[in-house]
From TrEMBL:
Key words, A-Z: Cell membrane, Membrane, Transmembrane, Transmembrane helix
Record organism: Mangrovimicrobium sediminis
GO CC list: plasma membrane
Domain of life: Bacteria
Name of the protein in question: ABC transporter permease
Membrane topology: Multi-pass membrane protein
C-alpha cells in the first residue's frame, strides 16, 4: 500500500466512524442509566432529514446541525415521556420510534431526494495538516468530527470520573434501590434519554451535512442498529466505544475499496461484511471468560415507577 492510498484510507476511516460514534455514545449514555432505546435508527434518520432541510433552506450547515440536534433531543424526550411517565415497554417503544422515524423521514424528505448542498467544509490546521500519512486524517477534518471526539472525552469523564456518573450507574444498576437512597431516578433517566436522542440527531446530521451532503431515503443504512451492537462489544466502556466505531467505519471503507478494485465478489456480499463482522465479534467476545465482567447494567430495560 503506497503512502497516498494509506493517507486516504486513514482520512476516510475516521470520517466513516463518526456517525457510528455519535449514535453509540447516545446509546451508551442511555443504557448506563437503564434506558434501552431501540429507536436510534429512526432518530438518526429524523436528524439527517431535518438537518438537511434546515441547511438547504437557510444555506447554513451550522443551522442544520442545530436543527438535527434539536430533533434528536425531541425524539429522546418523547421516548422518555412514553417510558417514564406512561410506563410503556421500552423495547416496543423504541422499535415503534424507529418505524415511525423511518417513515416520517421519508415523507419529509420526499422533495429533497437527490438534492445536494454545500456541506460542512474541512478545517485544515496550518503545518499540522501537512504531516505525512496522518496529517490530513487528523488535522484536516470538519468541526463536527472534532466535536464527536470531544463528546467522547466528555462522556468518559461524566461516566467514570464524576459524581454524576456514580448516580447514573446506580440508577442503571437498580432503580428501586437508587430511589430509596433518594436519587432522582426518573430525572436521571429522562436526561440520559434526551442526551441519547441528541447524539443520534448529531449522527444523522453528520451523514447528511458532512459525510455525504445530500439526502436519500434510509441513508443511515442500519447504522443505528450497529451502534447498539457496538456498545455491547465495548462492554459499555467509553474508550472501547470510540475504538469500535472507527474499526467498523474502516470495515465500511474497505468494502468500498474492494468493490472499486473489481475483486470479483458481488457488491451485496461485500456490503454485508460490516454486519457479519459485528455478529462474529459478538460471538467471539461472548466466549471469552472475562466478558461476563462487562455485562449490561442489571436495570437495563426495566421500567420504574416511584409508586411500586
Amino acid at each position: 500500500m503506497d503512502a497516498e492510498l494509506f493517507a486516504t484510507l486513514a482520512f476516510s476511516t475516521l470520517r466513516a466512524g463518526i456517525p457510528l460514534l455519535y449514535c453509540a455514545l447516545g446509546v451508551l449514555l442511555a443504557e448506563r442509566s437503564g434506558m434501552l432505546n431501540l429507536g436510534q435508527e429512526g432518530m438518526m434518520l429524523m436528524g439527517a432529514v431535518v438537518g438537511f432541510i434546515a441547511a438547504s433552506e437557510s444555506q447554513s450547515p451550522a443551522l442544520g446541525v442545530l436543527a438535527a440536534a434539536g430533533t434528536g433531543l425531541a425524539c429522546g424526550a418523547l421516548f422518555a415521556l412514553l417510558t417514564l411517565l406512561l410506563q410503556t415497554n421500552q423495547v416496543a417503544t423504541g422499535l415503534a420510534m424507529t418505524i415511525f422515524g423511518t417513515g416520517l423521514s421519508a415523507f419529509l424528505g420526499e422533495d429533497y431526494v437527490g438534492s445536494s448542498i454545500d456541506g460542512i467544509a474541512p478545517l485544515a490546521v496550518p503545518l499540522l495538516a501537512d504531516i505525512p500519512l496522518f496529517g490530513q486524517a487528523l488535522f484536516a477534518q470538519d468541526w463536527l468530527l472534532y466535536l464527536a471526539w470531544l463528546l467522547a472525552l466528555a462522556s468518559y469523564w461524566l461516566l467514570h470520573r464524576s459524581r454524576a456518573g456514580l448516580i447514573i450507574t446506580a440508577v442503571g444498576e437498580d432503580p428501586a434501590v437508587a430511589h430509596r437512597l433518594g436519587l432522582p431516578v426518573r430525572r436521571v433517566r429522562a436526561l440520559m434519554a434526551c442526551a441519547g436522542g441528541l447524539m443520534a440527531g448529531l449522527g444523522g446530521a453528520y451523514l447528511s451535512l458532512a459525510y455525504t451532503p445530500l439526502w436519500t431515503e434510509g441513508m443511515t443504512t442500519g447504522r443505528g442498529w450497529i451502534a447498539l451492537a457496538l456498545v455491547v462489544l465495548a462492554g459499555w466502556r467509553t474508550g472501547l466505544v470510540l475504538v469500535a466505531a472507527h474499526v467498523f467505519g474502516m470495515a465500511g471503507i474497505l468494502n468500498l475499496l474492494l468493490q472499486g478494485t473489481g475483486i470479483g465478489l458481488p457488491g451485496q456480499m461485500l456490503a454485508m461484511a460490516p454486519y457479519l463482522l459485528c455478529i462474529a465479534a459478538l460471538v467471539l467476545l461472548s466466549r471469552q471468560r472475562d466478558f461476563g465482567r462487562y455485562q449490561s447494567p442489571p436495570g437495563l430495560g426495566q421500567n420504574f415507577s416511584p409508586e411500586d
